[in-house]
Structures are given as structure tokens and as C-alpha cells.
Fold each of these.
Amino acid sequence: MAVRHTLRSPLHERHVALGARIVAFAGWDISLQYSGIIAEHLAVRRAWGVFDVSHMGRLAVEGKGAAALLDSLMTVDIAGLEVGQARYGFICMSDGGILDDVVTLRRDDTSFLVICNASNRAAVIPHLHQHLPSVNPPRIEDLTPSTVMLAAQGPEALEKVNDLFGSVPALRRFRGAPVSWLGDAVLVTRTGYTGEDGYELIAGAATGKLLWEHLMKAGATPCGLGSRDTLRLEAGLPLHGQDIDTTTNPIEAGLDRFVQKGEREFAGKWALERVARNGPVRRLIGYKTSGRSAVPRHGQAIIQGERQVGTVTSGNYSPSLEVGIGLGYVLPEVTRPGDSLHVDVRGRLVEVEVSSLPFYRRS
Amino acid sequence: MYPEDLRYTKNHEWARVESDGTGVVGITHFAQDELGDIVFVDLPSVGTDLDQSAKFGEIESVKTVSDLFMPIAGKVIEVNNQLRQQPELVNRDPYGSGWLVKVEIADPSRAATLLTAEQYQRTLPGR
């Protein structure tokens, strides 16, 4: 007998059979790549690809007090969501630091689904429990181990998934609905993390396995974490644990549009208002290299003239643009698109220019 | 996957010794497969003198960066400038158009200390 200490998707054996290179991430064994990161990335940009994102946390929050609990903890309005509507926002600490960035879907009057990062599931669940009201406490159930979540992304994704299901209600972006398939229900949301249109699909483990098989048969390119990272970075999307974390706030990360203004009280509101009033002490910017060069990476110093003005938080190669791209925090005055900076890449200075986000936009 | 006319190192570089005392250096099929899609190769300048096992550059893939070590001592006489625009040649054709540097070999007899194709393959993890 051998004890394994990592978690695995119900689809793990399928990935191994497809020749996936498996890596450990957030306590899970996950596919890094199948055919190659660049090939998978370009398949999503040009056609469609499917990711097994079962490692993401899926938390059901249900009952009369569900809306109030989530509303008190999220930087965005949750109680006001319509049935079938989802919203991206932050769970902040009282000092404005970001515990996690999550997507919350209202399933009905008293039922919500919170999708959180795999790396933060173990922090978000206790955080919810710690803030339960004594009157009408909602039930919190971790659906992660018993469900599969797939992301079908790319210009052909909607059509291909619609074909497979026969009929999917027309969904606007950030809307979701259950769809009947093979005698079971699949929750379909028009959401994603790639900068492409597409769906995320949640089902019980058995149906989820069938769903993966059918999507592969329909011609989807299986895609792993490697391309997931290059795609989201091209789309200018932050990654918790790299670009945002409990030591950063949404204002300095340039994500204040996900912090609702107004009367509603939520954790961290006062701290965030203070940051907004005084101006953040640093700002998250995008940068890119001008051509082929060594790729700036996480943790490397951003230099202007003789001084360090910031640090890279995410750095990677952009298969669509064929340059190095990334995000980093810099002093607030160093933030105009076109500004020239350098990154100290293992002892050599690589020239970069400040770039507006996203780096890649679908035409 | 491992041509018999080349010599290899445990660090997954290969060297082809030509009859005129020059050598061509690159990385093996195993190395390019492990690295994944290559996006940048940092090579030395022509004229650089390098000892055997000296670091002569870096090869970067989407996910990692690896140091490159000389299989054999020599002076760099040419570098593969095609890799600037097409680093993926190292993945596609690691023994041909994906070559890295050409050197004037300091001591051609040292090539005999390198691994044969068969010896090199025996160092690779079973797949």
C-alpha cells in the first residue's frame, strides 16, 4: 500500500492516458501540458480547448442567511444577483488584503455557488464559517471532491458545447443555468479565465468523466496548466498567490472596478476606502519585451535608470505576441503605457515597456 | 532519437566531431522534450574560449530555464543565429537545424571520454 498525499481529479487516469505531463499544484496532481503549451495555447485562441479545472474550489452556500453572509464578505454585491447571474469579486481581510478572488453564482433565491482558487479552498471555508451569523446561519458544503469542473474555451467553444448538449439556454456572459444531459444535470456558466468566450461546466464525477470523453470526441484540444497560465496572462488576468494575495489590495492591483462603492458594508471596506482616498503606494502594471529575449520572471527586479522601482509578480512567454509579457508592482509614478523600464533577468538587464491591459484582445 | 555518430554528456548535450577538428554542439531529444517549447536561447559570442563542462549559455522554455554546459573544450567559431527568431528549431530538430554552437575543438582526443549513444540512453530514466 502506498499513501498518496496529493489530490486528483476524477479524470486523472484519462489525462495520463493522453500522455499528459503531471505536476503538483496546490496539493493536486494536475496536467501541465498534453501536446505542448504553445500548441494548446494557440488551439484555444484559434479554435477551442478544454481544461480540467476540477482542482478549483466549489462551495455551496445555502439557506435564508446565505445572501447576507456572502454580501458581508465580498467586495461586490451578491444579494442583488439575479438567479443565474454570476459575479467576480474579492474576499478581503479587514486590512483590505485579498484572501481570494472568487466567482459567485446565484442558483436560486437562497442558494449560491462560490468558485474559489484551489490554493485557497482551505482558507476560504474557515473564513466563511468564522463569519456565520448566529441567526439563520447558511449551510456551507464543499462540493469539490464529488464534482468535476471543465472549462471549454475558444471561438468555437460555445458552438461545440451547444451541439453536444443539443440545447443550451442562450446565456449572456457571467450567466449560468443547469442543463439536462444524459439523465443528469450539468451546470453551465458562460465564464472563463482565458480571454476567450466559452463555458465552464460543473457536473458530478461520473457525468463529468462522460462529458470529458464526449468533448474530446468532438475534437477539443486537451489543455493543461501551462497554457492556462499563458492564456490568462495575455488576457491581463491576475493570479492569486502571484499578482494578488493577502498582502495586496484590489486598489493597488488596478481592480477597483470590482470593489463596489456605496452603502453596503463588507469586510475590508474601510481599509479600501482609505487606500482609494490616499492613493495606493504602488500599482500593478503590465509590461512586455520588444522582441525575443530572455523572459522576465516572478520575483525579478524592475529597474528604471539606477534604481529598482518594482518587482515582477507574473512573467511568461506570450505565444500570441511572441514576446515576454508580465505583471508587476511599481511605484505609482512609473505607470504610463510606453514608459521604458528594465528587468534584471538573472544578472542581465532586459528592456521592457509598460503596456496597457489586456496584452491580447480578441478582434 | 540518439544518433550513433554523436557523443553525449550526462547533462544531455551532444557533440559532433568533424574531421577538420571543429565540433558542433546541441542538446538531445530527451532534453528538448523535458524542457518543452523553447522560447529563447542565450548563446556565447564568437571567439569565446570555453573549457569542457563550462556553462556556455542558457536555454529557456515556457516553464523553465536551464544552463548549457560544453561537452568539449574549444573556441566558439559560429553560433546558430536562426534560433533568435526560431527557437522552436531546437524542439523540432535538435540534432540538425537546432544546433547551438560550432567550436574549434581544443583537444579532439577528449571526445573519446564522452558517452556513446548507447551509454547515454542508459542514463535516461525509463519511460
Amino acid sequence: MNAIQVRFFASLREQIGRDRINVAASGVTDIESLWRRLELELPSEAIAALRTRGTRIAVNQELIEQDATLAPGDEVAFLPPITGG
Amino acid sequence: MQRDVQLEAGPFDPTEHWRTFLARLDGASGGVAAYCGMVRDRFDGDTVGGLYLEHYPGMTERSLERIVDRAGERWPLEAVSVVHRVGAVDAREPIVLVMVASAHRESAFDACELIMDLLKTEAVFWKKERSARGERWVESTARDRERAADWKKDK
């Protein structure tokens, strides 16, 4: 697979209008480069929503604190603050 | 420690899960504690029709398993079971059931409380409330965050 799947949940999913997009993996090797690719592929309102304070990022279902390397086939998820129970 | 985490897409019967849980214990447990969270039909003066619970398949289950494991590291527990709804849940329905078995009641009560406090801030769910005012995504409360932080203090 030559893509990185990017998923959006809950309020982010609604603000962006879709629950996922695939980005071509070439040139996307970490979260920094993923942001640059997303800025090209999503409208600015969507990027603003993703940058909302409190949004967490998970790579392959593990939360990351800082940057992380990415490989083709990886799944990146943008998670709004959780509320459960 | 026996650990069982289940997500349910439709209504579940807490008494059925309770019966199953008790039947599986091996006799070393003298204390079995349970907590059942219900969807209230009112909030802030509004009638609440129900909720929608979004989750991240895979990550949600693992977040619950890790919460249960934290309780198991802290107290000697024989068995823990967590049942949690996903999707649409109507008002007055059970949303979560936590059951804990231990040799004695102190560990069982405390572990049950820890699991619920951690669940409120660390379990991967997003709650949307449906009321006459419309739909809104719920935000975590300062009280929930305080309770979760308090457990780290009295270690």
C-alpha cells in the first residue's frame, strides 16, 4: 500500500465533513510532513479544526506526544478530547 | 487476573452479565463490586433523549484493557469485567457496567472506583447528547479530570 490513511473522529469528523482521507505516502515520512500534505489537500477551516487545542494524534492506534515517523500503510488518527463512560 | 472487555452495539442486561461474572469466579473472591452507569434523561434543565457514543475500533478496546490492567497492578484482583455501549443509547439505559472480584471488599470497591475514574478521562469514546436543544458533543468535566489526577497522588 502506498498511502497513509488519516482518520477523523467525532466533532472533527463533522467539521471536516469526512471520516478519513488517504494521502500518498511518498514524501510523508513524519507528522510534520503529513501536516504539510494535509494543508495542500484540506480546506483551511479543516486544518484549523485539526489544530484545535486538545486534539490528540494517534499513529497506528497509539497516542503520540511529539513527532513520529510514518511509513506507507500507517494509520494516523486525529482525536478530539475524549468523553466516555 | 481474568480480564474481560466488551463493547455492545445494542442494549445489554446488567443482571445477565452479573450472573455470568459470578458464575465464573473460583471461590477465592470474597468481595465482588459492581458499578453501572446510566444515561440520565435530564441535564441542566433539559430533557435528554439519549446519547451517541463514537469509538475507535481497536483503540477503544485497548484503552479499556489498559485501564483494567492499571487496577490489576495496584490491587490483587481475581477478575474484572467491563461492558460498554457504543452507538446510539437511549435515556435510562445502562451505558457501562464494571464488575470487580477480589479476595476482600476494600480492593474490589477501590478498583471499581479507579476503573470508572480512569474510564472517564482515558477510555477512547466521544459522547454526543441528544436533547430538545439539538445535538452537542459533550466535554469532559473538570471534576472528572480532578478525580483521575487524584489517583496519581495517593500512590
